[in-house]
Specification:
single chain; alpha+beta; four-stranded mixed sheet; globular
Length: 338
Amino acid sequence: MMHEHFSLKPYNTFGVDAKAAYFTEVLSLKELKGALNFSEEHRLPLLFIGGGSNILLTEDFKGLAVKLSLKGIHEDLISENEVLVTVQAGENWHELVVFCLEKNYGGLENLSLIPGNVGTSPMQNIGAYGVEIKDTFVNCTVLNLENLQLETFNLEQCRFGYRDSVFKQEGKGKYVILEVAFRLTRKNHIIRTSYGAIQSELDQSGIIDPTIQDVARAVISIRRSKLPDPKKTGNAGSFFKNPTIPQQQFENLRQQFPGIPGYPNGDFVKVPAGWLIEQAGWKGKQIGNAASHALQALVIINATGNATGKEIFDFSTMIISSVKEKFGIELEREVNII
């Protein structure tokens, strides 16, 4: 069904009340192609919405917004220790993780409670606590918007980087991801507990030999203690990428700021954006309806529920300017600005 002048407030986790000139929800490839034909006939720009957890709507959208709600999970046993799990784009990411944990499929547990849907996960190469989806990714099926043909992108073709992929670079706006396949373990799981506070969370619970379910519970506990629930407070999770700077620049900054944390990455060092923002005085700070979260400065929130997208965008610009002035580092937004 096609709707006109449709509010997208329920379809973005910031809870911004922007409107789309046209809106439709698609449950199949046939319906998706029908929506694309409609947009072509009426010469409408397209906006594809998954879980709405990584977009900031700064104004009304003058085209067709398409909510991708293709559902389904398929399992193929590869070997005694491996399973291929193929997931439709409209499945909720965390619900997929829960599904895998119930089946005792390992590989996604560190990515528990990340907001959004499966279809957008390759775009960002979503990651948390030392794991990215590229670690288990096999391929994804996409619809080429130019010729409406199905194509398959393997791991190499996706060119995954830190919160980056071919779909954010030269492939941006050219494809719609329809399903994603992951290679997961069935019994000989690799337990990753060294990143962040996972190990200390397990220690507090007295867990010495953790299962993948234990790791997931630890991650969920940590995320809930630091991050606001988008159902209660509008946000899109981490608003900025953690910047990676040359080793020499990091050493120079450490002379000036001895407490600056950094994670070596070849000849570069990754610096936590949340620390930079907090040191620049933004943690918990509110201007108008937008604020930096009191427990995690990396998260910008719709503090009153009434913030416009432009208000949140302008707030993020002030943070970028402030951090650059203090540290000489230019933060990059992780959220897609519409």
